[in-house]
Automatic annotation (TrEMBL), chains A, B:
Organism of this sequence: Orenia metallireducens
Active site annotation, chain numbering: 195, 368
Annotated binding of Zn(2+) 1, by residue: 72, 74, 76-77, 141, 163
Note accompanying the cofactor annotation: Binds 2 Zn(2+) ions per subunit. It is not clear if Zn(2+) or Mg(2+) is physiologically important.
Coiled-coil zones: 494-521
Localisation per UniProt entry: Cytoplasm
Main localisation: cytoplasm
The protein's name: Ribonuclease J
Assembly information from the UniProt record: Homodimer, may be a subunit of the RNA degradosome.
Amino acid sequence: MKRNAEISIIPLGGRGEIGNNMILIEYNDEILILDCGIMFPTEDMLGIDLVMPDISYLIENKDRIKAMLISHGHEDHIGAIPYFLREISNIPIYGTRLTLGMIKKKLEEHHLMGSTELRQISAGQEISLDPFKIKFVKVNHSIPDAVAMGIKTPSGTILYTGDFKFDQTPINEQPTDFNGLTQLGEEGVLALLSDSTNAEQKGYSVSERVVNDTINSIFEKADGRIIVATFSSHLDRLQQIINAAYETDRKIAISGRSMIANTKIAKDLGYLNFPDDMLLEIRKINNLPDHKIVYLMTGSQGETMASLTRIARGDHRQINLHKGDTVLLSATPIPGNERSVGETINQLFEKGAKVIYGRELDVHVSGHAYQEELKMMLNMTKPKYFIPVHGEYRHLYHHSLLAKDVGIPEDNIFIAKNGSRLKVSEKNAYFASPVSTGKILIDGSGIGDVGNIVLRDRRILSEHGIIIVVITIESGTGKVLAGPDIISRGFVYMKESQELIEEAKNRLNIVLKECQEKNITDWSKLKTKLKDPLRDFIYNETRRNPMIMPIIMEVPNK
Amino acid sequence: MKRNAEISIIPLGGRGEIGNNMILIEYNDEILILDCGIMFPTEDMLGIDLVMPDISYLIENKDRIKAMLISHGHEDHIGAIPYFLREISNIPIYGTRLTLGMIKKKLEEHHLMGSTELRQISAGQEISLDPFKIKFVKVNHSIPDAVAMGIKTPSGTILYTGDFKFDQTPINEQPTDFNGLTQLGEEGVLALLSDSTNAEQKGYSVSERVVNDTINSIFEKADGRIIVATFSSHLDRLQQIINAAYETDRKIAISGRSMIANTKIAKDLGYLNFPDDMLLEIRKINNLPDHKIVYLMTGSQGETMASLTRIARGDHRQINLHKGDTVLLSATPIPGNERSVGETINQLFEKGAKVIYGRELDVHVSGHAYQEELKMMLNMTKPKYFIPVHGEYRHLYHHSLLAKDVGIPEDNIFIAKNGSRLKVSEKNAYFASPVSTGKILIDGSGIGDVGNIVLRDRRILSEHGIIIVVITIESGTGKVLAGPDIISRGFVYMKESQELIEEAKNRLNIVLKECQEKNITDWSKLKTKLKDPLRDFIYNETRRNPMIMPIIMEVPNK
């Protein structure tokens, strides 16, 4: 049983990236899955909708999977569940009440209800999934009902924080269960897996309560309509906005599919509290005087189709901005969104709105622990080994420095890669042979059918478009029956480049003539013979490298 | 002469955007051009290299152009000069010594030397270009030899600040000529055009000297090699790095074409000072011990092909990162570059480098005035009318609030659009009929041959690629001789979607059969008949919208 005395920790995603959070804990050939998140595509993933971790390792080891445990209801922790269930069903999913509420919504959207069992747990509870015992500990985050997990095995306890912060004055809920954490520390934590998102931020994160004060004063000052954009999953923030509206005797209309869905779930489950008559439909609220109106919506990230972005562009069907409106962006741009958010802000100003945004104004605080809190987590739980998770390499790196600061020996700190298999036991810890993993790209309804070659083609097409050369030849003789025709898209205006195209045709005709004299009738040969000179010609004339695609049709020789 | 008593101020670019700075001053039908800059393309301008203002108004009014005056040598103020000169040559260009040095380099690269006359001026000087008199006033910025311009006309003086900050302890040069500014204020400024870039930033900008201290302490601490990335045009910064290297007895090697070119110009003109033997070629410096080496390079913005980016990726031919190297990013990311810069930082950390970056560390300060300096500029020059320039709408808007704060009447503040014609005189100021302008996209060697349609096609291609359907028919009869063939690029792996393609072909064949029965031989009709059902089929199967392009070849009926 020696081998089995070791615990394997395998991050399938979330290391070296923000999102894709998914970690495996293996003991005695039993696998626990911690979270199942997606990430949003980076600029170079052209046309991609979502990204999820490669779960082929889990597919191969289906039968060994014991359960999936979810820390909280954000996309980067639950988003991949529907795609997971299409491959592997009937894995019981454990989560708190709100978290399961969010998951249920997803499964309904994907027509996957009944494909597995959702088992509700609550903070403070300990459940047994032999050989594991799991203790759930309440933590604060930017969504209620978030938990850390103490995963107890005969060989020791692995503590996974999920996303967390320490908020002494949270909205609508209790502070982090410090006792629960220190108790695990007392019993002994073999390894700590802790959230690194803000490992570069000095000091302590700011309490959600601070935002409360800002929002209230903004609502008190505003005499026109108020438009608030924030994350649809940020229920604490939504509650504060609802409270402020209530205090200033305003009604609320919600715009945006996800915002409407999430507020409904949260209200039904009791995580949002407000009198029913406070919520009006947009067309109804539009009849009220301006000082009675609050619009609550998505678009804080400048997403093209989100409500605020459409209002800023002036193409929202039901809401037209007018002078005197106050617009509050209660969120900070996620890296990569700065420019689109800036664009939205410019458009809002131009339409005469008073726009309130920016960190320094306390209109948003982070849901992730800062450096002092991260050290506190380490000091409260006193782990033997430390593995920073959730973050780009720079965040993991800085988190590891913090661990050193509080006295974790350098040799006991491990920065894992996606797919790394870290084996830990009281005796020692080391990296064993990794499992194969990677990113799966989701484009439309296709999962994983778009890869590097397709993306490379999309990049070339996006930069200088495509030039298509079509020729019909007589099979056997290779006699040209029609063409060469040249068609381009995304290259230049055809009409403005008639000469260029004509000259290109001439050159192709010369090449074709040569080929016939040498009677080259082999397609592939012919294609390269046409492609290369055309590419060079186009580049010399335009300094551009469009994709060049010769197509040869063959007509049977009569 | 009544009409002529008015001065027209016409921004052709730089309003509502960062870059493209170009402003026209018209008086008595004489035109002065202030700056001639480019801007870098936004994400939605796929494949575009540069953007410049539409100068068709100037082309139409060639003969009225008196001269071009340049405030300083940055791309967003001189970058469009070569493209301007291709359309309009022999317009004398006025600038300070360094500014002309930068321009000369450009003209040489574009083989445009001799296409016009470069006339050197110096700060403090006043020149006469009847009916204008222009007084040049020294200001601080992130490049030496920057000037503001007081443009004097019989109807009053227009003061254009260019880019500026007030630095009490600049590197290698004098502080802003406050006396020159206040003097213009005393004589009376009719209208002030002032830099709005940092109008959202509270307080005063930080002196370049502060960066000096940070850089020195970094150099003193570092025991390995030092790699510094910054803007190649930021000569003050380069001087500081050279000084720090000199103090710590290190040699310097420069990597990156623009960095090498700019340092050479600046050294030749005496704007960079260092003993010749301090500069070594990379292959030479690589033979020195680590603690003797400084690499100076571009890439502070994560630009794909820049030196630092290549080093981070591990594909720089001459420089391989190793543990113990210190990397200093002496610049903050321009909005839109955050993610690529972050990516570079992650890669540098992973290769074991000590990476130093981020505003809070004082490794970079802005070259543009903050709010208190902007107010000071207003108070020193006491303009009757105020026109904020250089900035997105949000910046212009906040700058106008500052003007109100210092007592400029709201009616005397004008936020102009690109192409607006603002007429000003002692009597009054108002917007007259605008001139036509816009953005010209430069792609490779093509200027303006890429527009919205081409960009839209590139966007569609970039998102889901292209599906091409080729058919050869017999002319007249419309009999199908070959095809339909289906080829795709950037859509999905062909091999993984054989079935999809086969099914698509079947559907096309059905459509073709119908067409022949109804004997539809008209190309365009046939194309739509093929296109629409295929689009629907592909979307239903994949939820994607690739560009669909039917091509029909016609072979003469024998």
